[in-house]
From TrEMBL:
Protein name: Glycoprotease 1
Molecular function (Gene Ontology), one example: tRNA N(6)-L-threonylcarbamoyladenine synthase activity
UniProt keyword terms in alphabetical order: Acyltransferase, Metal-binding, Mitochondrion, Transferase, tRNA processing
UniProt gene name: GCP1
Organism: Trifolium subterraneum (Subterranean clover)
Cofactor info, note text: Binds 1 divalent metal cation per subunit.
């Protein structure tokens, strides 16, 4: 692999209210520029690439953000058509006769930890916390994952984002960092929120109820989100800070409780586990890191957190995951130079990482199996048996 680089484009799918077909042409042009910029920054051309990796799921495909990245330099861009990123990746791969690797977005959040922590060997555990996903997994080997827990409704990042919005915070860097900052000024025990799902002795998560509790607390304190925090009175600011701190304490306690149980389960299956990786946007939060570090140490494990810029969505994680799979020969042959016009891109909105741990199946979770793509782990196992 020495000297060889993988060009990636990371596709992140988000709900949005904009017609997906809108300005497809313009989006393609932006992507061309971003890829060119990344290549220029790396003093490379497409001819220097070894393979192309592109994230193909999971996520809902109405509106999306896409990121392009080359090696360690990166740029990002918002585009609104889901096929644009995959199409671009296929064009480069096809045009330059390069293998292509379809990447699972959440696997990439977990595996990027192996880029920065060279001692991180399989098996290990991972808690993946972002805007759309909450996952606790046991990574037994590359591509071999057991899902210990997932969210039954909202992910923790969604709860941070909505709480920040209702508290009238500055959302320019997303809600999470705004809550984290304001929470430092508040009393985390001042508002009595209840910890979700205590009666369910599993590792699943729920944040919808906590979100509602936050909304009710805001209403009862008569906080007006239309008044931005920067213009709020001292008392008003303090009561917003109290809610932020109390929300954060309970949101993270929920993570702590689930991790504690998951460690117990995982060690039963794989007693040699030494690490718990915490990654995804919410893992850039210092309070989250500190609290989970305590839980992990108490159980004789070590916490591995990628630096914040590798926790939030980024292209490096997709490139790195591409490299991991490429090294073991897991890639698709170069696509044709030009896809037919009616070509259906392989995009997987509902794509589990692995099978659920049997003991962990929650009655609280209504598993909708319709249109779920076979898990990454089952696909890899099937290909190994061929
Ligand atoms: O992984 P990510 O960048 O994108 C998704 O795949 O969703 O995660 C984005 C989420 C957002 O909800 C954002 O508010 C949250 O991560 N986030 C944080 C922090 N930084 C980002 N949440 C809490 N504290 C932070 N410092
Ligand atoms: Zn993500």
């Amino acid at each position: 692999m020495q000297g060889k680089i993988i060009l990636i484009c990371d596709l992140l799918v988000k709900y949005g209210g904009v017609a997906p077909k809108m300005a497809e042409e313009a989006h393609s042009q932006v992507i061309d520029q971003v890829v060119q910029e990344a290549l220029d920054k790396a003093y490379m051309t497409e001819k220097d690439l070894t393979a192309v990796a592109v994230s193909i799921g999971p996520g809902l495909s109405l509106c999306l953000r896409e990121k392009f990245l080359l090696s360690v330099t990166h740029s990002s861009v918002h585009v609104l058509h889901n096929a644009v990123g995959v199409q671009k990746a296929r064009r480069i791969a096809g045009g330059f006769n390069l293998p292509i690797i379809g990447i699972h977005h959440m696997e990439a959040h977990a595996l990027v930890a192996r880029l920065i922590e060279k001692d991180l060997q399989f098996p290990f555990m991972a808690l993946l916390i972002s805007g759309g996903h909450n996952l606790l997994i046991l990574a037994r080997d590359l591509g071999q994952y057991i899902q210990l827990g997932t969210t039954i409704d909202d992910a923790i990042g969604e709860a941070y984002d909505k709480s920040a919005k209702w508290l009238g915070l500055d959302l320019s860097r997303s809600g999470g960092p705004a809550i984290e900052e304001l929470a430092r000024e508040g009393n985390a025990k001042s508002v009595n929120f209840s910890i979700p799902m205590r009666q369910h002795k599993d590792c699943n998560f729920s944040y919808a109820g906590l979100k509602t509790q936050v909304r009710l607390a805001i209403e009862s304190k008569k906080i007006d989100a239309k008044i931005p925090i920067s213009s709020a009175s001292y008392e008003d600011r303090l009561s917003r800070a109290d809610i932020a701190a109390s929300f954060q304490r309970i949101a993270v306690l929920h993570l702590e409780e689930r991790c504690e149980r998951a460690i117990e389960w995982a060690l039963k299956m794989e007693p040699s586990i030494k690490h718990l990786v915490v990654s995804g946007g919410v893992a850039s939060n210092q309070y989250v890191r500190a609290r989970l570090d305590t839980v992990v140490k108490k159980n004789g494990l070590q916490l591995v957190c990628p630096p914040p810029w590798l926790c939030t969505d980024n292209g490096v994680m997709v490139a790195w995951t591409g490299i991991e799979h490429f090294r073991v020969g897991r890639y698709d042959p170069p696509p044709p130079a030009e896809d037919p016009e009616d070509y259906q891109y392989d995009i997987r909105p509902r794509w589990p990482l692995g099978e659920e741990y049997a003991e962990g199946r929650s009655e609280a979770r209504s598993v909708r199996t319709a249109r779920i793509h076979p898990s990454l782990t089952s696909l890899i196992q099937a290909s190994l048996q061929q």
